[in-house]
Amino acid sequence: MSSYSGVVVSDQWLQSQFTQVELRSLKSKFISIKNQNGKFTVGDLPPLMVKLKAFKEMYSEDEIRGILGDQGSDFNNEIDFEGFLRVYLNLQGRATEKSGGRKNSWSFLKATTTTLLHTISESEKSSYVAHINSYLGDDPFLKQYLPLDPATNDLFDLAKDGVLLCKLINVAVPGTIDERAINTKRVINPWERNENHSLCLNSAKAIGCTVVNIGTQDLVEGRPHLVLGLISQIIKIQLLADLNLKKTPQLVELVDDSKDVEELLTLPPDKVLLKWMNFHLQKAGYKKPVTNFSSDLKDGEAYAYLLNVLAPEHCSPATLDTKDPNERAKLVLDHAERMDCKRYLSPKDIVEGSSNLNLAFVAQIFHQRNGLSTDSKKISFAEMMTDDVQTSREERCYRLWINSLGIATYVNNVFEDVRNGWILLEVLDKVSPGTVNWKHASKPPIKMPFRKVENCNQVIRIGKLLKFSLVNVAGNDIVQGNKKLILAFLWQLMRFNILQLLKNLRSHSQGKEMTDADILNWANKKVKSTGRTSHMESFKDKSLSSGIFFLELLSAVEPRVVNWNLVTKGESDDEKKLNATYIISVARKLGCSIFLLPEDIMEVNQKMILTLTASIMFWSLQQPVDDAGGLSSSADASPAPSVSGEDESSSLGGDVSNLSVDDAASDTTVSSQVDNEGSPMPE
Fold first, then answer.
1. CATH match for 249-383 among 1.10.418.10, 3.40.50.10540, 3.40.50.880, 3.30.565.10
2. Which run of H or of E encompasses 670?
3. Angle, nearest 10°, between helix axes 422-431 and 449-465?
4. Cα distance between residue 611 and residue 596, in whole Å
5. Compositional bias (Low complexity) at which positions (predicted)?
């Protein structure tokens, strides 16, 4: 294979939305029309788009022309390749909605925001502004700008420098961002602003947000529908954070036996919230099951019953006696206020069935008073059902990585969601396009068990084709939910993706396979080139726990990104934790999409150390190089909006190449015969 660097798009976020196969195909069609006509105009888009496989049955030429016309496009204007790609993404987003959106997703994550949907809900904006004023009103930096007025566009203006969104992420999942890495000057330059937005988007992915159609430029411009969509996801992740057995073991009261507990473990938070609501409604004598946060709550009756059973001391008979839904909704909110619940919605929002605000309101009621018992036997049983710390950390990492790829299915629990094989096939299709035979795959819901086995057998076959180590492993092991084997398979899949990404970026590699040793050597040479003496012997080198090597590596690829005044010696556990937290935020700020935790650096988890090093390398190799061979670093330079060693930029390369593995440095063996051991890791 000759040296090949792939189709490169200057906007790295935009590039991350396509595989190289897709980019090559779209680029050839774009160039063909441009060569034929001398230029490519907006008017050329409709006839081309309807011929593309993705849109053949979704649009007519007139429909596409109408969409472009509604956006105020001049059909005579010339359009470049990036503009062409943006239109493609917009049409794709609308096509997804036409076909009913994504399946199996959290209700608030499944409809990814797109640049075609320019409407925003003033009620939602008011609610989120109130939330921000409440939770960030005392923030040392933001208090000079708060409280925000929901009647103005102050929210979107304040979001433009990235500080608000970063702080909001930390409210939702404390400790996600090291706030020392946020640029918080009153006036920041374009570079610093871009850094904040890269930090925000990569951190949002790391807490489970879907940010497929949001780039740093969207946030810099403060595009209302995109900013509001991101804020909505962040707030809801905060409100639903405790709706799992690990955080709230009392939820075990909602089920009767161990089988039901297993099912409860697999439910997404919004479904757990519905289950909790129906549990109390049934006790209160409410006959109709609530299946959604919209139409089923419009008349306010379910709320009245729920609040009466949770807080009977504040109960008012008038709430159920009144026939006017608006009056009942008002009484419900009065009742909730007496319980000290934050008011996320108005009577009008209840009557109109605002699903986002109803979900937020029910979550607030749950936090304030969940009405669950503290049966110690049941709680201890629930605690036994949860995974150990290391297994939970690995599951979290792979779940977030898979969700960052932009596949159609949202993963809530890796161990349960992969058991039918479908999600693994979707991931394989992303990281190695063309390897999945979709004619022999069964799409969920799958009723026949042998269909799940067929899917998983195909997963194993493809794994072997990609040279994964799968000793004595069959598809049925995945169907049975063997956690050790699932984690080991996902590690090999993630590692394969990283190596393929790097291979396709390195035009000078002449198609040679990338190995773990190449990443190790690159990192050491990079640090050495700056005159520093730190050295990494392997990805399990215990000296890495101080964090100094990675800070020197980050400084080597971009000198101004590390503030050395904030760096400790990394000698005590506290100092190591400070450095590790800072490393992760600085890498995300640079543009790396990473999913490890500070503990992974402190404990030198070699899998996560490899992904961190590879992500920094991936970002570095994409940067322009000056004549001296170093990174060009002009004052106006800005980092890639979202560089992802594990992201959808992912599926580079149409050919499936054999993975050359240095056994001493890299391979992971999966064997169903060693179930009692931890997942083996390369030496």
1. 1.10.418.10
2. strand 669-671
3. 20
4. 8
5. 629-657
Each residue of 319-373: pLDDT tens digit? 888 999 999 999 999 999 999 887 789 999 999 999 999 999 999 999 999 999 8
170 neighbors 179 (Cβ within 8 angstroms): yes
For residue 215, with 0-12 CB atoms within 10 Å meaning exposed, 13-18 middle and 19 or more buried, which class applies?
buried
Higher pLDDT, 568 or 35: 568
Q: What is the Cα–Cα distance from 107 to 120, expressed in whole angstroms?
A: 17
In 3D space, the residue among 607, 601, 595, 588 whose CA is nearest the CA of residue 546 turns out to be 601
Per the structure block, which two tokens stand in for 286? 């409410």
Phi, psi of 238 (to 5 degrees): -65, -45
Q: What stretch of H or E contains 661? A: none
Band of residue 32 on the pLDDT scale cut at 50, 70, 90? confident
User: Token pair of 399, please?
Assistant: 């779940």
Residue 219: in which H helix or E strand, if any?
A: helix 216-220
Tell me the residue type at 501.
L
- Give residue 87's Cα distance to chain centre: 23
Name residue 470's beta-bridge partners.
670
Q: Identify which of 141, 140, 180 has the alpha carbon closest to the alpha carbon of residue 566.
A: 180
Fold of 516-622: Actin-binding Protein, T-fimbrin; domain 1 (1.10.418)
The radius of gyration of the chain's CA atoms, rounded to the nearest angstrom, is: 26
SS3 labels along 279-296: HHHHHHCCCCCCCCCCHH
Q: How far apart are CA 571 and CA 547, in angstroms?
A: 10
pLDDT digits (tens, 9 = 90+) for 521-574: 999 999 999 999 999 999 999 999 999 999 999 999 999 999 999 999 999 999
With vertex at residue 256, the alpha carbon angle to CA 252 and CA 260, rounded to the nearest 5 degrees, is 75
Residues 6+ apart with CB under 8 A from 420: 442, 444, 446, 451, 452, 455, 456, 479
State the span(s) of the chain assigned CATH 1.10.238. 12-98
What φ, ψ does residue 670 adopt, rounded to 5°? -105, 125
At 264, is the pLDDT very low, low, confident or very high (cuts 50, 70, 90)?
Answer: confident
Tally of CA atoms within 13 A in the half-sphere of 172 that contains its CB = 30
Q: What is the CA 356 to chain-centroid distance, rounded?
A: 19
Phi/psi for 651 (5° steps) reads -75, 70
b or e along 189-204 (b: 16 or more beta carbons within 10 Å of the residue's beta carbon)? Answer: eebbbbbbbbbbbbbb
Cβ count within 10 A of residue 603: 18
Confidence of residue 74 (pLDDT cuts 50, 70, 90): confident
| Residue predicted with more confidence, 56 or 545 | 545
Check pLDDT > 80 for residue 661: no
Distance of alpha carbon 423 from alpha carbon 443, whole angstroms: 9
CATH code that applies to domain 387-505? 1.10.418.10
Closest CA to 632 of 562, 557, 530, 564: 557
CA distance 244 to 225: 30
- pLDDT tens readout for residues 143-189: 999 999 999 999 999 999 999 999 999 999 999 999 999 999 888 99
Cis peptide before 269 (omega within 30 of 0): no
Domain 12-98 belongs in CATH node 1.10.238? yes
